[in-house]
């Protein structure tokens, strides 16, 4: 599917409703029709879910600042047949209670829906404690997780419905950084821009980095693919896109730890000699200045200018 890329002026126009707003609205509305649904909080967003807690006090549980207990409670609810939605900032949802995710969810063979906010550096003003760019890579060490990384608030409802309707473990990674236009959220990679047939390769943009990728690659003769769902990884879709290009070169642009999906790209193209360049949050830089999200994005080379420079170097004839 081909979709018109955003213009420079559109990239500066961000949605007024945040992904977090849409998450609360979609989840609250779901209570009316889904008796399985339960929400488990550790103070974060408790005020936003207060109306739901007043109506369904037995299915909206706030355990206080006890993230390990939050996940443990979710595992217990799942064992009773409920579909728990567990929510907090990324490091408090994935890193701090990781053992509970491994045991209370994974080892017990039950499902839950994890919904994070803060992404890699949205909460940069709060310091390193509120940053977790390694979250998707960490969940990759556990089997069976489905991972959604929406790039626009309008993509969130469909991804949440997919998560609510399933039974396995799902992670939905929300961000304050968004693209200007929503994209398709169906299974697989979606072609945003096709190459000429003699194009230099494929750029795979994940979630909220798409606008920066489109602006950065400019008039380079490359195919651009987009996905808000990184697990399961669409190995067939990537292999087909690479097969249509003149060169089997892939630039992977992810809004979290650089190279998180590089092994998936390698597996998808194991029968094809290829090159991979991974862009994302640096594995080598520990940023100690708080800064703004935009400053962090630039420091990690995820702004349009840096992506463009990297693409021109990588895809150079």
Give the overall silhouette: globular
Largest sheet: 7 strands, mixed
Distance between the termini: 27 Å
Poorly predicted runs are: 1-12
In CATH, the topology of the largest domain is named Rossmann fold
Q: How many structural domains are formed by the residues? A: 2
Find the CATH superfamily of the largest domain. Answer: Thiamin diphosphate (ThDP)-binding fold, Pyr/PP domains
Helix/sheet category = alpha/beta
Strand content: 15-25%
Architecture of the largest domain, according to CATH? 3-Layer(aba) Sandwich
How many beta strands in the DSSP annotation?
12
Task: Write down the overall mean pLDDT.
Answer: 93
The helical percent reads 25-40%
Please report the number of helical segments. 13
Within the largest sheet, what's the order of strands? 2-1-3-4-6-5-10
Please provide the ordered H/E string of secondary-structure elements.
HHEHEHEHHEHEHEEEHEEHEHEHH
CATH hierarchy class name of the largest domain: Alpha Beta
Radius of gyration: 19 Å
Protein name: Transketolase
Pfam families: Transket_pyr (PF02779)
Domain Transketolase-like pyrimidine-binding: 17-182
Structure summary:
This protein has 317 residues and is α/β, with parallel strands linked by helices.
């Amino acid at each position: 599917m081909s979709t018109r890329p955003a213009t420079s002026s559109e990239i500066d126009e961000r949605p007024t409703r945040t992904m977090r707003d849409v998450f609360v609205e979609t989840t609250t509305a779901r209570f009316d029709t889904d008796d399985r649904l339960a929400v488990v909080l550790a103070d974060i967003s408790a005020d936003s879910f207060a109306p739901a807690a007043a109506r369904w006090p037995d299915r909206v549980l706030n355990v206080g600042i006890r993230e390990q207990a939050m996940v443990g409670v979710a595992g217990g609810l799942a064992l009773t047949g409920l579909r728990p939605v567990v929510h907090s900032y990324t490091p408090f949802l994935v890193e701090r209670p990781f053992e509970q995710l491994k045991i209370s969810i994974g080892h017990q063979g039950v499902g839950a829906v994890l919904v994070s906010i803060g992404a890699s550096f949205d909460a940069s003003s709060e310091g390193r404690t509120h940053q977790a760019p390694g979250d998707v890579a960490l969940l990759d060490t556990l089997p069976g997780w489905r991972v959604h990384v929406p790039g626009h608030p309008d993509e969130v409802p469909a991804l949440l419905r997919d998560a609510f309707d399933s039974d396995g473990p799902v992670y939905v990674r929300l961000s304050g950084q968004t693209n200007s236009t929503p994209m398709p959220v169906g299974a697989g990679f979606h072609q945003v821009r096709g190459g000429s047939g003699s194009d230099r390769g494929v750029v795979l943009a994940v979630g909220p980095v798409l606008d920066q990728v489109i602006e950065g690659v400019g008039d380079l003769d490359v195919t651009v693919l987009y996905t808000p769902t990184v697990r399961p990884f669409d190995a067939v879709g990537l292999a087909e896109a690479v097969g249509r290009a003149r060169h089997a070169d892939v630039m992977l642009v992810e809004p979290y730890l650089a190279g998180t999906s590089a092994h998936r790209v390698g597996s998808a193209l194991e029968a094809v000699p290829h090159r991979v360049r991974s862009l994302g949050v640096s594995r080598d830089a520990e940023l100690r200045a708080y800064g703004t999200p935009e400053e962090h994005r630039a420091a990690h080379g995820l702004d349009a200018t840096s992506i463009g420079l990297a693409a021109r170097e990588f895809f150079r004839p």
